[in-house]
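Weekly puzzle thread! Below is a chain. First person to post its structure in token form gets bragging rights.
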Amino acid sequence: MRPQRKPIALTMGEPAGIAGEIVVKAWHSPDGGIVPPFVFLGDAGWLRAEAHALRSHVHIIEVQSTGEALERFAEGIPVLPLHLPERPVHGKPASANAPAVVASIRSAVELVQRGDAAAVVTNPIHKSTLYGAGFSFPGHTEFLADLCKAPGPIMMLTVDGLRVVPVTVHLSLSEAIKSLTTEAIVRAGRIVHAAMRRDMDIETPRLAVAALNPHAGESGAMGQEEQLIIAPAVAALRAEGIHADGPLPADTLFHPQARARHDAVLCMYHDQALIPLKTIDFHHGVNCTLGLPIVRTSPDHGTAFDIAGKGIADPSSLLAALRVADRMGAASGRTA
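Winning reply:
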């Protein structure tokens, strides 16, 4: 394990899902790779029960600080304890446990803001359960933005060899097209450019900007969005000194040679970004939140209630999220 002076703050996530299982499995590093040191913010007794169900002999170690967590990570999983008032049952989220889930996220952010942790990695949450307990944010990203006082962060999904950023996210296709603007594309490009320089050690990021319509609109024969919305955004980014190419036909943007020409792709809607990424590497996708003053990543999957407690959850995406957070923290100097 390479030297690192600050661990990653790993949140509890929804305890009725697969979070406990993948945390235990991740510590064991089933792929044989390095696991960046992390401290788990959650219920130690529950995590012990998860480890016991998996027949894992990992020690669950309650600690008082991130410094102690770093010192003891090789011995087992260090936990900054947060009590769950109700015993979790796999597949059955309990609203009584929602405040502890929220507190775990809040505490992780505070650790990074104080300089005690290098990054936040969030385990999946069950949003409807949190809503029932008074959680007022659409999801993780909006809550993190509020905690960090950061206006409008954006989502980047990454696997080895591909980074994608959906300019519009959880909207129907018709609504995504209606809401697409030059300003939104320019803003996404600026945030991606700055984050890649700061957190990914890429001095001159190369951005590809995907077209919306087939064949990039064929000079207006298949749609006007390229000419009226996307091309002006590319021109504006270039005028600011940002390396941006486009609008580029999406059907030729994701083969290996095309991916090698760019460091990230700005996509116009959700599936334009997510389909190629999940086709290339379904199990190792990582969600990175850009535009925050902290590093935050998460596995690119949900709570998986259908397989919770069965011992078959794959920790690959969590491992990838920890490793990406570690690299981003190191590039930005947050690990020191």
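Puzzle host: Confirmed. Bonus trivia for everyone else. The domain at 8-152+293-331 is CATH 3.40.718.10 (Isopropylmalate Dehydrogenase).
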